[in-house]
Amino acid sequence: MSELMRGLNTMQEYSLLIGGKAGEGINTAGLSIAGLFSSLGYRVYMYFDYPSLIRGGHNFAIIRAADRPIGAHRTRVDVLLALDRKTIETHKERIDGKTTVIYDSSQVKEGMGYGLPLDDIIAEERASPITRNSAMLGALARVAGIDREILEDVLRAAVPEKHLDSNLRVAARGYSAVESVFSVKQLDAPALPVLTGNEAAGLGLVYGGLDTYVAYPMTPSSGVLHFLAGRAEDLGIRVIHPENEISVILMALGLAYTGERAAVGTSGGGFCLMTEGLSFAGMSEMPVTIVLSQRPGPSTGVPTYTAQSDLHFALNAGQGEFPRLVVAPGDPHEACAWSATALMLSWRYQVPAIILMDKTLAEGACSFDLDASTPPRDHEPLLEDGEGEYRRYRLTEDGVSPLAFPGMEGVTVKANSYAHDERGFTTEKAEEIRALQEKLLRKAGSLKAELEGYQTVKTYGAPDAARTIICWGSQKWVCIEAAAGVGARVVQPVVLAPFPVEAWSKAMAGAGEVVCVENNATGQVARLLREHGFDPGRSILKYDGRPFAVDELTARLEEVFV
Amino acid sequence: MTPDRSAAGLITPVQNTWCPGCGNFSIQHMMRSAIAEISEEEGIPIEKFVFLGGIGCHGKLMDYLNVNSLYTIHGRSIPAATGIRLANRDLRVICHVGDGDIYAEGLDHLIFAAKRNTDITVIVHDNRVYGLTTGQYTPTSPTGFRGRSTPRGVAEQPMNPLEVMLAAGATHIARGYTRKTRHLKDIFKEAIMHRGFSFVDLLQICATYSNLTDYYDAHIYEMQDGDLDTGRFESALQKIREWDYDRDAPIAIGTFYSIERPLYEEGFSVPPSGLEERRGRVQRLVEGWR
């Protein structure tokens, strides 16, 4: 047995699933379960699955807790918490002889495991129907051998004061209705908060200097809007929801023209509407940061599920040729760090920046350590020094012109969507058009040179492995875990434009047998690699709206790595 | 560029490319005079004015006046103007837009700006034709108008933009005519000084594709004191409906409606400055999580 495998065998981890109808608070219940394990020092990850409807249907959350960082789910679960019959029927393949099933016996008549009469419990405790989740949480704590005090602390942190008492009573009923099956021990590690990728991206934007966030609701990016709107006063920012995505990006550009750092958030359909504003940002050299959260398309596609299918859209959206920064963080830590970095770099180089997320990352949650997520370096915009006549588009060696903002004494700021001269006046003269285009290209070169000092390509696992898995964005952690099982290493490009050619060459030296794992149907990052002259190897693709589970990906990798 | 505060100093050296006889010349001159006078009378530095343009002949004004400007894209100047006002409430933000630009492509933004009552001024250069794209009909072209895209005549009725703006909640609504220049300057000054969303539909001729000079000269009249009550919705609506941009009727110019309402931007607290403080807030929020 290798040292790695011995290590895997001694690792502690638990998988739990809670399921029920939409409207029953499954997401919140899942986060409470994550909080329960987090308070014991575990690192947690939660995947939340829900169809696009308000009430009914089937929602479920898989929570995984481990004694090491994780960021993916497994198929099998140790505990299944079923608020309805559909949860048991849907998740049969996740259950084996060692799985503990806890179900609502008011809904499920002949279940195996522990049946809790939730209707009776809430009637007797005179509690609201939503407290069913607390009974489940109580039962889970008992099954997992977790002290009642820890359970109560988690509820105190999660439940508003006026509902706390009834939730504690209902949780106690769940706790006493079952018996201890296994024993989750306290770990010697700090309890970390559990954040979604959307929350982490929002925090990163503020860390990078965000003044105003502008967005029109669209799943799965709305979490950023809700989080920042809910915390706007705490964070000292402004949050605006205008009439549509066209207005969103134009408002952001108006804010940028006036010197405020603005970011916007959307998904594919909204980004379609933003593309004219994106080109405007490119031509007028006004910074804007776009959180682009992918879901399956084309068109409305599958609104509440996941995909990595908008990479080339993000890379190529807009008419004309202009530089942009495109980054694809792989987890909430990277989402926070790269959102801050993208916002700062968009201002330093006066280019649009796109943070490419997806539903798995945006709405998935994991243990979050802010110190582990601090972006690499600070950047301030280049400001006009006030000497001589102001020229908004002054031709400089690195292509970046000093900024001034309207209202400043003694300057006139003329920004322009047309081809323009250095002062911002419209031009159609051949030599001025050429000079402007070359200025934009010089800026692209400067941004690329800047990024050489960043970890634009990340590698994980044994450097001398003869197999390499390429992945991007949210597939990072599932690949890291699956790679350990098949003796491969993982290479993840974080910056996708400007593409870090040198860092990529270096990371892929001696890659051996190569496989590219993506949540899309055509292998979009593989195509990008081929465009830059690199061989992406064979593709493993999943395009059913669901992310890979660790065991599922391991099986696919074993088929390819023969 | 260093601004010159005099009206003459506001002209840039950029070569003017409007057609001879274009209504834009009087808009340019009266707008220049209006902001120079406001600057002097109210003590507002020229640097505090920002112009926005969409796409069309009107937008060239961005190049011809030495004032802060954001030359935007077709129909989109209003959301950008809203962003500018949110970021800096000391600025006087004036959108110059075209009738095709804002009543077709940008109508949603226009309605929402009126609904919000953000403190910007929208001046519509309404020549009732697409000039720069060579003569197609616009939302205010009369029924039967023969343009290059409608050679048999427009089958739709024109919209009455003043009626739309009144319904949308605009707090200041006026109409001007480019050949009544002194009246035009007063209309501009009043709209710019209005506290809230102000809207001016400016009838102008397109010398090349829609020269309505004789028609306008015969129909347009300046409203006098007592013609209507500008503080009353019903009074404004009645006057606004006197001419529907289609049938023959007297065409009133002047202010139709002017009321006070809270400003959109007052609903937001001003963000504190300082990156370090912002980062401290992020740190505290994470530490106190859930």
UniProtKB/TrEMBL annotation, chain A:
Domain Pyruvate/ketoisovalerate oxidoreductase catalytic: 22-175
Keyword Transferase: no
Pyruvate flavodoxin/ferredoxin oxidoreductase pyrimidine binding domain span: 206-435
Name of the protein described by the UniProt record: 2-oxoacid:acceptor oxidoreductase subunit alpha
UniProt source species: Methanoculleus receptaculi
Leader sequence residues: none
Keyword Glycoprotein (UniProt): no
Gene3D superfamilies: 3.40.50.920, 3.40.50.970, Pyruvate-ferredoxin oxidoreductase, PFOR, domain III (3.40.920.10)
Keyword annotations: Oxidoreductase
Gene Ontology terms: biological process: organic acid metabolic process; response to oxidative stress; sulfur compound biosynthetic process
Lineage: Archaea, Methanobacteriati, Methanobacteriota, Stenosarchaea group, Methanomicrobia
GO function terms (MF aspect): oxidoreductase activity, acting on the aldehyde or oxo group of donors
Domain of life where this protein originates: Archaea
From TrEMBL, chain B:
Alphabetical list of SUPFAM superfamilies matching this protein: Thiamin diphosphate-binding fold (THDP-binding)
A Gene Ontology molecular function term of the record: iron-sulfur cluster binding
Taxonomic superkingdom: Archaea
Domain Thiamine pyrophosphate enzyme TPP-binding: from-to ranges: 55-201
Alphabetically ordered keywords of this record: Iron, Iron-sulfur, Magnesium, Metal-binding, Oxidoreductase, Thiamine pyrophosphate
Pfam families: PFO_beta_C, TPP_enzyme_C
Cofactor(s) the record lists: Mg(2+); thiamine diphosphate; [4Fe-4S] cluster
GO biological process: cellular respiration; organic acid metabolic process; sulfur compound biosynthetic process
Pyruvate ferredoxin oxidoreductase beta subunit C-terminal domain boundaries: 206-268
NCBIfam families, sorted: PorB_KorB
PANTHER family linked to this entry: 2-OXOGLUTARATE OXIDOREDUCTASE SUBUNIT KORB, 2-OXOGLUTARATE OXIDOREDUCTASE SUBUNIT KORB-RELATED
The protein's name: Thiamine pyrophosphate-dependent enzyme
Species of provenance: Methanoculleus receptaculi
